User: Fold this.
Amino acid sequence: MKEKISQIVERTMAKIEKLDSAKELNDLKVEVLGKSGELTLILRSLKSVSADERPVVGKIVNDARVELETAFTDKLARLEQIELNERLMKEKIDISIDRKRPIGKVHPLNDIKRKAIDFFVCMGFIVTDSPEIETTYYNFDMLNIPPDHPAREPQDTFFVTDNIILRTQTSAGQIRTMEKIKPPIKMISPGRVFRSDEADATHTPCFHQMEGLVVDKGITMCDLKGTLSSFAKHFFAEDTRIRFRPSHFPFTEPSVEVDVSCVHCGGKGCNVCKGTGWIEILGAGMVNRKVLLGCDIDPDIYTGFAFGVGLDRITAIIHGINDARVPFEGDIRFLKQF
Ligand code: DAH
Assistant:
């Protein structure tokens, strides 16, 4: 019997060594140590062994059992470790992949807007905000735009109600500022404006303006020209010239349209300036007496100038963008270029 037991142990140990799956290992364990396993049956047959021999043989069977159980447990632990290592290798996460995420940038229009704000803030202007949903009172009436003015037609303006609109110009911000602050005033007010235009290469129903307003004692058109000339040189090139052309805006008198010498050809004439050597960038003028009076500012004591720059237009000139719609599309291929 002793012999038989050591044979079982030897054979089982050899098998344990060879097996490399937990399932097979378990099956083998049942075969040898299970309820009707080889070794268990031997233990049961001890009844037939004589009473003297029984403790000796019993100890041998028990030792064999302990030895095999330890071997099974050790092997199972080794197999589990191998399996765990394989799984860890397979499930490895490459955390470096995160770093490849592209980094966003400031939209070219916002970049230009920020540079324009920086320039005027350095000149001592304050930055004000005013509502995009505006009343006809601020957008038209207080700016001396009469009720029969074509700008008030529904084909030019988005009406919310008869007297609430989407602002068509940042000029409404002039009035809101003059109601709150009394001269000296030096302010800019950038923001979105809306007109009911069909979108095409030169129009979009939403675009961006920056209003400027200076009101103080003794302000003249020279101040306007000096301010805008410095702005143009700062924005385009040191040798940029500006010119004033007579124009008409109800809220300024006199009114001008302001051109800069073409940034692409320096004034010789090219396809950007359509051969003229000049590019129009803004409207401006001396604040109309009626507008000052409406805001309780005495036009015999104070004078002022105002201007409204088209930010989309400046962005297009600087970057050579030839379709006004493109900057609004959010197309990554376009934005990546800046
Ligand atoms: N608001 C005008 C427009 O949208 C631009 C403008 C012209 C603004 C003259 C001004 C100004 O402040 O003085 O066309």
Residues 53-90 form the longest helix (38 residues).
